[in-house]
Amino acid sequence: MRFTDIVFSRKKNLGNYESEEVSISAVVAEDENVSDCLALVKQEVLHALGMAVDPVVAAPTKKATPIDTKVTKPAIVTEEAPVDTSKEDAAKAKKEAAAAKKAEKDAAAKAKKEAAAAKKAEKATVPYNREEKSHRIEFAKVLASVNPNWKTECAELGKAASADLSGKPMMDDEGKILPEFKALVEEAIKEEEL
């Protein structure tokens, strides 16, 4: 019996329910040793998958002629593609994957940090309490910055705004008036003037 074709295939588990399969077919010439050709084809498949390659493979007397090389990923449309055997491309792909993973981790850490800062900012505000004298004094200062003549022009509007804004965040934890509070006062005065 004479062997004319060799086909070797190996599937590698990538994790997360994904795998990659590489198959190589080769034609064995009449003067070639079948075992040597099979060892060479196996070595090429393992190398393409980045798996350990047995270094003690005897080279065939004549190189087998590859017929078909394909990389298949299950659950994805199977396409014929050449198998990239260069170590530089594999190293480059590994670096790109590591960089993408690092960027993903950095983005997650940044989002977590921003969420923590937002939560801290929420906790670090002091709500306006119109019963507290120091708050009323600060509220009057905000009114004066919005309308310097508020006492003569819109005192009633100031009182109404004071009642409406009770309980809204007024100051940060350092006692500085929040820009959002000032905007609310401006809006309340304008709405009432209309």
Describe, in short, the structure shown.
This protein has helices at residues 34-48, 87-123, 133-146, 150-153, 155-164, 179-193, and strands spanning 5-15, 18-27, 65-72, 126-127, 169-171.
What attributes does this structure have?
194 residues, alpha+beta, two-stranded antiparallel sheet, 5 strands
Distance between the termini: 101 Å
The share of residues in helices is 40-55%
Quickly give the structural class: alpha+beta
Low-confidence stretches: 71-81
The secondary-structure element order is EEHEHEHHHEH
What is the overall pLDDT average?
Answer: 78
DSSP summary, beta strand count: 5
User: What portion of the residues fall into strands of 2 or more residues?
Assistant: 15-25%
Q: How would you characterize the largest beta sheet?
A: 3 strands, antiparallel
The domain count comes to 2
**How would the global form be characterised?**
rod-shaped
DSSP helical segment count: 6
In which order are the strands of the major sheet placed? 1-2-3
Q: Rounded to an integer, what's the Rg over CA atoms?
A: 37 Å
